[in-house]
Amino acid sequence: MAVQPSVDNLQHVEIGVSGPDGANRMFITTGVATISHYAGSNQTVKENYSVHVEPALTASQFRRAIASAAFGQLAFYDYNAAENDGMSWQIEDVDADFDDEAGKVELRFTIEITTTGTGNARVGDVSFTVTTLAKV
Questions:
Q1: Quick check: 122 and 38 in contact, CB under 8 A?
Q2: Number of domains in the chain
Q3: What is the mean pLDDT of each run of 10 residues along the chain (136 residues)?
Q4: Does the residue 1 lie in any domain?
Q5: Residue 22: what are its φ and ψ, rounded to 5°?
Q6: Is the pTM of this model over 0.85?
Q7: Contact 118, 82 (CB under 8 A)
């Protein structure tokens, strides 16, 4: 089950298009998913997240969607400053597809943090863009 973060700074734009499969609208949605993904000393922590975005559509209106995600806030804390301390942040498996139950596009992404040594790492925010084609 994916974690559903809170979303801030949602912005939408709707554009008329002549697209594939009869698509006549393109919706671009951007925002910031507020997460608190944390890895302590010598840990690898991986978590799946999902966010539903506008517009509300039916399955017959939806044509396709694409998404991108980027780190908005990262932190690394090292209290002992050992030479072998390190960290790695990854965004994996960014995807967007129609969720029949919600009647909206669902953005899904996976975050993985790995720490070595005594450091701690955290991801606080992930910025995203979802582009949806629909026939409305």
A1: yes
A2: 1
A3: 90 95 96 92 94 95 97 83 78 95 96 89 94 97
A4: no
A5: 80, 10
A6: yes
A7: yes
